[in-house]
Amino acid sequence: MIMRAPASDLPLLFEGVAVVAGAVTILDDLSLTIGAGAPTVLIGPNGSGKTTLLRAAMGLIPPTSGRVTWGGREHALPDRSAIMFQRPVMLRRSAAGNVRYALAVAGVPRLERRTRANELIATVGLKGLERRPARRLSGGEQQRLSLARALARDPAVLFLDEPTASLDPAATKAIEDLVRAISGRGVKVVMSTHDLGQARRLAGEVVLLHRGRLVEAAPAADFFAHPRTEEGRRFIAGELLV
What is the pTM of this model? Predict the structure, then answer.
């Protein structure tokens, strides 16, 4: 069962975080607080820093300066956090085998893995495809399988990096329905998207990034009705931010 995020793990706090690679500044003095509740959705043009922010939150990229804390604790990533990448790699196993591997990595006892894997596969709408080689699944099915693998960690906080990129409308709707269901069970979802319509449909809070900087962070209804910045107004209008 997916549990509610422990209060001690949130908020997730970025304090003056910079990530620099060579001469390129990917995140630029970024300060942001992410608390419990409805999904936080990161938007912004390609190269704005969305993926790097997610990876830094998961401890996969160390800040060049500044700090990232969970519940006020630095270097203390919660055990129950997971990330789903935009282009997940499918193991050369069945769909169920992929999930059982994720359960093993998460420390689930061997005797429980088959039952748990079948439950997770049913949760993401892949029942009947347990024995299908994962690499023979469609793009949308692979994304749902990747989501099942992330849920194998029983996360309290789930990071999703453009989970519907390149999917058709039906596959996109299936993923969005799952995000709503997961969030409805108390899991904090933080996701990036390039799709403003998707942000409108899913976000409780919107975070707009541009050139590694935080431009706006606001409740979704407020952001879409009354963006506070010129960049926000232009981005909502469909103009290019360069």
Answer: 0.92
